[in-house]
Amino acid sequence: MTRKLHLNAFLMGVGHHEAAWRHPRTEPARLTDVRHYQELARIAERGKLDSVFLADGVALHGNVRHNALGGLEPLTLLSALAAVTDHIGLIATVSTTYNEPFHVARKFASLDHISGGRAGWNIVTSAGEAEARNFGLERPAHADRYARATEFLEVTRKLWDSWEDDAIVGDRVGGHYADTGKIHAIEHAGEHFAVRGPLNTARSPQGHPLLVQAGSSEAGKEFAARHAEAVFTAQQTLAEGQEFYADLKRRLAAHGRRADELLVLPGISPIIGSTEREALRLEKELEDLIIPAYGLAQLSTMTGIELTEDALDRPLPDVSVETEGAQSRRKLVVDLARREGLTVRQLLGRLAGGRGHRVVAGTPEQIADQLQEWFLNEAADGFNIMPPILPGGLSDFVDYVVPELQVRGLFRYEYEARTLRGNYGLERPASRYAAPREVAVAR
Amino acid sequence: MTRKLHLNAFLMGVGHHEAAWRHPRTEPARLTDVRHYQELARIAERGKLDSVFLADGVALHGNVRHNALGGLEPLTLLSALAAVTDHIGLIATVSTTYNEPFHVARKFASLDHISGGRAGWNIVTSAGEAEARNFGLERPAHADRYARATEFLEVTRKLWDSWEDDAIVGDRVGGHYADTGKIHAIEHAGEHFAVRGPLNTARSPQGHPLLVQAGSSEAGKEFAARHAEAVFTAQQTLAEGQEFYADLKRRLAAHGRRADELLVLPGISPIIGSTEREALRLEKELEDLIIPAYGLAQLSTMTGIELTEDALDRPLPDVSVETEGAQSRRKLVVDLARREGLTVRQLLGRLAGGRGHRVVAGTPEQIADQLQEWFLNEAADGFNIMPPILPGGLSDFVDYVVPELQVRGLFRYEYEARTLRGNYGLERPASRYAAPREVAVAR
Ligand SMILES: Cc1cc2nc3c(=O)[nH]c(=O)nc-3n(C[C@H](O)[C@H](O)[C@H](O)COP(=O)(O)O)c2cc1C
Ligand SMILES: Cc1cc2nc3c(=O)[nH]c(=O)nc-3n(C[C@H](O)[C@H](O)[C@H](O)COP(=O)(O)O)c2cc1C
User: Membrane spanning segments where (chains A, B) (predicted)?
Assistant: First the structure.
């Protein structure tokens, strides 16, 4: 089987561009309308994309005066999308810093049942300070967040394994519903969590949801190399992408994992036009709608320095790289400004489209060229597609870029499987509590 | 407007009878199949019922060897039901003892958006000890659980109010999305919680989900009288039902509330036959499928005394009434056994159908008589309908009992509203942060 691209539709309100809500091709009133997201999921499924992906935070991030914020919670939303789709994967972001593993394990098991095996979990550690304040806490240190994440994931995995695959007997006549020898208390007792188990939801179609990781700090990469099956990342240049890709794949071996057990999926925001001029016009339209005050506030949070309008036409001030927030994103932004000698205003323009993710404007062929280049040159196993405006940017991608990728033999014409793991080409994990089976020998 | 019944379909796996999974009219393999629940929701909506209601606990309760346990998580499930229905309310049980108010407020706001204003929250305090063990905790004392519940609800209400109704401006040309003067940090700092807010989901169609309470201890009733808009309760006799009803309605005044601001909804499990004989035969079929070991274990947990098979044909041993568990349910069970002089085996038979809720076998007319009697004699404003088997018991209720109630003028022919509050006849709460409006005076 030849290697194929994996593509997720990264959904964000009415588009990833921070001025999307002001563009005539969007309807910001649909931000809390489930039909908007159902339409997006159906478009993505029409394009045979692997999944729809929802980011999340547990605080109101950014200045809502100037952007369409305040949308829906991912897990409840994805259930409603499961109900109107059949094949597409459903990946929700849930933080390990402000949650309990029992609840998280159960909700993903439930979503996996509801979707027939299409659930995925983007495991994040919540870099923002505002989030801690909604839970009566101070934001834990970066290392502590990842330590908690590691134990958190261990507990959820045990819970998903707590019902073996064949635990349910279903003998109605004999009155024997389940084999309690195959439903296990997990008796987890660790530094952060003490959880007895078992889970009170039976083992789900995928066994475990697909496990995704999205932090690119040293701790984040180590976590990904040990545990994740896909990594979402922001990489600006091919060289950076290749370095990140090689780094992650190299780390896998140390944990006894094969290179194909982890997919590296950078984000990309494609600004699509039927001609290059049309694409550049759309890019310019969006740029003209940017409100500098909004981006300045975002950039201040990201870099940890207070930036005002006075700073706009000067270079980015010095920024320390050590931080307890999102380490990799801060580094990316500072590197970008330095490398290209950008003023703050120019930097804001570059960040407005994808918050640090790569933005590419062009024709469907040009977009396909970019994806192909990264894919064939070991910078990506696929991509998180971040349409600048929604639904238009997604339907343009599905209608014009996907066929181009299919013709080039880079992308599927039909889903290979009904589960997200199946379409990602990943195995279904066995329960750790199951007795090893005798291997049948073919004679 | 004449007073009308309110009816919820209390959904539980393949039926409320503990032997439902063994009955030929059920399919226990559908326990984790979303289509089973979607079918149930559609049946209930066809019958114009007010809502579907899902109970929940965060531990595997009961002996799964002998019962079909391990189903889906309510909030994820209800989102998937919202997607295939238009009018029916969606009430999920969520505990205040092992959750964080920010998450709970957000998920209900999200469900309320997704369903177009049909979300309800059954607020419980988790009486079981096993639940605490899944969160590294000892079960808090009864009074402490209710104290936490009170503050928890206060925080969620503030969060739901944190976006005023008219906070979203949506001025695309001017670049003004929301009026930040109408989105409020809640700055809650109490004994159990410190939450800054605002919520990161905009105010939902109902403002707050419908608030339901389901504990009938002294603390539970006080909580309900202060905060709840509906009370689910288990009452065995008309006299008990009347006493409970009068008690609750009386308490409302002390909190400045009108009697019609809280609906009292006892549970009832109707065993329906086209003749009385047929109903009794179904009851007997289910009784014959009971596994005493299962009920014994349940009763042991409920009463706090270890009961073995030896105890079956003797009266229930002495049970102390003070407990840190579910106070009102223990009292109900002990009273029932004493009042009717039941042996343990007989008591198990009585509990198998409805776990302490009233079970009534009969023709549609006889069932309607029972509902009418309680409704007209101030024992109920409506009922939680607990079909012994599902989906059959629910479709029988909808197809035969509902028309009988409609003909008698006791139940709606059409939904009055699109929201759950609307159908319950309850007001939409205003945001506490909104400036008082000038009242327009009609001239
Ligand atoms: C594509 C992508 C999506 C992300 N989505 C989220 C998100 O939804 N919520 C969140 O808290 N962090 C999100 N992150 C951030 C990281 O997961 C991580 O929490 C943060 O960057 C800190 O980790 P680091 O220091 O290892 O980079 C995302 C990152 C990437 C690359
Ligand atoms: C109809 C009904 C449904 C209930 N559903 C739940 C439930 O789903 N989960 C739960 O933990 N408790 C449930 N309860 C129990 C109570 O809400 C409460 O937690 C328990 O009875 C202890 O409160 P009490 O001591 O005030 O009775 C239910 C009670 C009734 C009457």
Answer: none
Q: Among partner residues B79, B100, B103, which is closest to A80 by beta-carbon distance?
A: B79
pTM: 0.96
CA angle B20, B21, B22 (to 5 degrees): 90
Q: Please, which residues have CB within 8 angstroms of residue A427's CB and are 6 or more apart in sequence?
A: A421
Test A177 with B68 for CB contact under 8 angstroms.
yes
Pocket of ligand 2 contains residue B214 by CB under 6 Å? yes
Atom number, ligand 1, closest to the C-alpha of residue A95:
11
Q: Which of A60, A106, A109 sits opposite B198 (nearest CB)?
A: A60
The DSSP H or E segment spanning A249 is helix A238-254
Q: In 3-state terms, what secondary structure has residue A8?
A: strand
Contacts of B29 in chain A (CB under 8 A): 170
Atom of ligand 2 nearest to the CA of B54: 8
Give residue B214 CA to ligand 2 midpoint distance, Å: 5
Residues A203 and B32 sit within 8 Å (Cβ to Cβ): no
Residues 6+ apart with CB under 8 A from A120: A51, A53, A89, A90, A91, A92, A209, A210, A211, A212, A230, A420
Residue to mutate among B56, B66, B79, B135, with most A CBs inside 10 A, is B79
Residue whose CA is at the smallest distance from ligand 1 atom 30: A214
Q: Is the CB of B20 under 6 A from ligand 2?
A: no
Query: Nearest ligand, CA of residue B92?
Result: 2
Element (H, E) at B16: none
Instruction: Using DSSP bridges, classify how beta strands B89-95 and B176-178 pair: parallel, antiparallel or unpaired.
Output: unpaired
CA distances from B289 to B13, B125, B282, B286, B292 (A): 17, 32, 11, 5, 9
Question: What's the token pair of residue B190?
Answer: 């109490």
Please, which residues bridge with residue A270 across strands? A360
Q: One digit per residue, pLDDT tens: chain A, 443 residues? A: 589 999 999 999 999 999 999 999 999 999 999 999 999 999 999 999 999 999 999 999 889 999 999 999 999 999 999 999 999 999 999 999 999 999 999 999 999 999 999 999 999 999 889 999 999 999 999 999 999 999 999 999 999 999 999 999 999 999 999 999 999 999 999 999 999 999 999 999 999 999 999 988 999 999 999 999 999 999 999 999 999 999 999 999 999 999 999 999 999 999 999 999 999 999 999 999 999 999 998 898 888 888 999 989 999 988 776 677 777 788 888 889 999 999 999 899 889 999 889 999 999 999 999 999 999 999 999 999 999 999 999 999 999 999 999 999 999 999 999 999 999 999 999 999 998 765 555 44
What ipTM does the predicted assembly reach?
0.96
- The answer to whether the peptide bond before residue A198 is cis (omega within 30 degrees of 0) is yes
CATH code of the domain made up of B6-275+355-442: 3.20.20.30
Q: Are B75 and A76 in contact (CB under 8 A)?
A: yes
At residue B136, φ and ψ (nearest 5 deg) are: 65, 25
**Residue among A72, A98, A134 minimizing CB distance to B196:** A134
> Which chain B positions have a beta carbon within 8 Å of A113's beta carbon?
32-34, 72
